[in-house]
Amino acid sequence: MNTGTPISRRTALEGMGAAVALPFVATGAEASPARRVEGKVALVTGSSRNLGRATVLELARRGADVIVNGRSNREEAEATAAEARSFGVRAIPILADVGDEQQVNRLVAEATERMGRIDILINNAAYRGQSSLVDMTTEEWRQSAAVNFDGPFFCTRAVVPGMIANRYGRIVTVSGLNSFHGRPGWAHICGAKMGAVGMTRALAAELGQYSILVNHVVPGAFVAHPDPESIPVPRIGLAEELANVYAFLSSEDASYITGQTFHVNGGDIRY
Predict the structure, then answer these.
(1) Does domain 34-264 have CATH number 3.40.140.10?
(2) Cα–Cα distances in Å, from 107 out to 100, 104, 160?
(3) Which of 52, 66, 191, 199 is deepest in the core (most CB within 10 A)?
(4) Where are the beta strands (DSSP E) in 47-106?
């Protein structure tokens, strides 16, 4: 089984600038986590590139079969799935716009048919576009809501019946640090993503009886930050550090955690 190219954490952390984030590289002998997602099937939305891709590869490295989802770039999705298969797991790409209910239903139906079931859902897909309130069009508002709020709802609603039948599930919703402290020009994004927090808590209360655990993750600076040295951990986060949190919440190690919000930000905001 291919374990990827090792990279030392010291090497990864040295020389990181204000807008530099090291690309995800799957670690081999240096990291040997318990494979507590082995044999599970995971759907990660918006996962053909960037942080979603890192999450797919980390889950695959830990033994999970994965569904790679992108909206329109089939080449990227297929490349990520091929890389995931190098870890000896099943991996398939399926294109779908998560803001479209019919496309989500098709995505989940095809994934279930081809993979047998879905045990893990990570609602990673996101829309970002800046606009002041007075200039914001209704179309911009709806586009943000469609991907950032409707998407997690559509995907979760589609996978939950199968999880209930299997009496097992792990669901992670995702927002961002700006949603908690606010950002000018992001009213549509912050509003939609904070809605996902409330949905997470309600679903945790509703679905826990079926051994379906629902949690929320808030990434901090993993792409850029105006002053990374001001963060208590003074650097941009590594993609693998966020992927590790998703993998933990997807695993048996998180079997008594639900309805919680996890901030992964190097201490940028402290709760």
Answers:
(1) no
(2) 11, 5, 14
(3) 66
(4) 65-70, 91-95
